[in-house]
């Protein structure tokens, strides 16, 4: 059966309470974010016929959909780490475009911080020792160490400096200072980032993301639903996804990530170029992720990321390409698989709802185009979404 391709818009976005939330369950944060996203869109829950979620329950998204009182006829439980949500948005857009769903809700919630504080779980140092990982785990190769090794390889091959990596954290904090909901807003200096305790060489503490609680929700809908929504639509223009390796020993080049493929696909399908983007929301569990993703998406050449991030280029207030305008995972919030938060912030920027951190074009107008790119695992996966307003 051939079905005509429909345009797809993001019509509702929201965050749950974030940061330090000691009195809520992950299910409650899912529900809070979902209710707020529906209220943002102005659509009734009964119009949702698609649902996507990952990271909670034995049968996600079945358990979460049940908790939310949803009975969807289209579901997605893709789980590839931080890039999960960009891939889910791509899958949902394809399903809506093909007529298999009309309105798809993406929801996430986590009490990562509260669980550690309450002793319900420990920090995530590794993903286990089964499958291909069994050949790395005996050597104490933690999750953070994987990212640190990749950063060190980039420094060796391209001359990237620790000061340049620290600049990513400094500028993320500068953006967070404009976000009243960010966990950490006090300005940082490069020296402060570099003088912190070493977590995994070359990363000090402030090269690493915060641990927070929080949830997010995004509602996508077919173009004919837009007229019933209270918000201006933000259109899904192009998407791309890619997975490259299961273990570090299978990774051909530590300085090239799957975003090099997912980004190329997303921009080509959207019919735009990186140079046309007014901002970028990038997964930043560690400073190196921002730098190398900028290279791989085409904002600068391979090896030039260090120079690119210098001189305030990533800042909302005066930067050439504002990146992680809410403060990102390094300063705003990071409750686990943060990819959905990138989409929320991108939509708010395009709708002109970002308050004091609002990005403006050189002519003073609102941004027209933006990109959200998530990274999963240890640079194992990437999903990229190009968004634009009418």
UniProtKB/TrEMBL annotation:
Record-annotated Thiolase C-terminal domain positions: 240-389
Domain of life: Bacteria
Gene3D superfamilies: 3.40.47.10
The protein, known as: Thiolase C-terminal domain-containing protein
């Amino acid at each position: 059966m051939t079905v005509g391709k429909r345009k797809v818009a993001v019509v509702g976005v929201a965050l749950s309470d974030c940061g330090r939330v000691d009195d809520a369950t992950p299910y409650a944060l899912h529900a809070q974010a979902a209710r707020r996203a529906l209220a943002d869109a102005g659509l009734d829950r009964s119009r949702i016929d698609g649902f996507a979620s990952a990271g909670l329950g034995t049968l996600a998204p079945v358990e979460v959909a049940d908790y939310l009182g949803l009975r969807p006829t289209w579901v997605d439980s893709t789980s590839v780490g931080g890039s999960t949500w960009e891939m889910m948005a791509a899958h949902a857009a394809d399903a809506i475009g093909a007529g298999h769903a009309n309105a798809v809700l993406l929801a996430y919630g986590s009490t990562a911080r509260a669980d550690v504080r309450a002793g319900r779980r420990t920090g995530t140092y590794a993903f286990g020792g089964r499958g291909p990982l069994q050949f790395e785990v005996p050597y104490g190769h933690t999750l953070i160490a994987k990212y640190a090794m990749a950063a060190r390889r980039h420094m060796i091959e391209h001359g990237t400096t620790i000061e340049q990596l620290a600049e990513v954290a400094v500028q993320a904090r500068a953006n967070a200072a404009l976000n009243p909901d960010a966990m950490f807003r006090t300005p940082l200096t490069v020296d402060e980032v570099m003088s912190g305790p070493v977590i995994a060489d070359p990363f000090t503490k402030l090269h690493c993301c915060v641990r927070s609680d929080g949830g997010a929700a995004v509602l996508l809908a077919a173009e004919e639903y837009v007229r019933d929504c209270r918000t201006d639509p933000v259109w899904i223009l192009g998407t791309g996804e890619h997975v490259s390796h299961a273990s570090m020993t299978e990774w051909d080049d530590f300085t090239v990530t799957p975003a090099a493929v997912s980004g190329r696909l997303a921009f080509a399908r959207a019919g735009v170029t990186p140079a046309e983007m007014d901002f970028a929301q990038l997964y930043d569990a560690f400073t190196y992720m921002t730098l190398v993703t900028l290279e791989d998406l085409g904002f600068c050449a391979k090896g030039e990321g260090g120079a690119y991030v210098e001189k305030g280029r990533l800042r909302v207030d005066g930067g050439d390409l504002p990146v992680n305008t809410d403060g990102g995972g390094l300063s705003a919030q990071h409750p686990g698989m943060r990819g959905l938060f990138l989409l929320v912030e991108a939509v708010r920027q395009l709708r002109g709802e970002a308050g004091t951190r609002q990005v403006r074009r050189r002519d003073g107008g609102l941004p027209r185009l933006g990109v959200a790119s998530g990274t999963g695992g240890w640079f194992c996966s990437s999903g990229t979404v190009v968004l634009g307003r009418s």
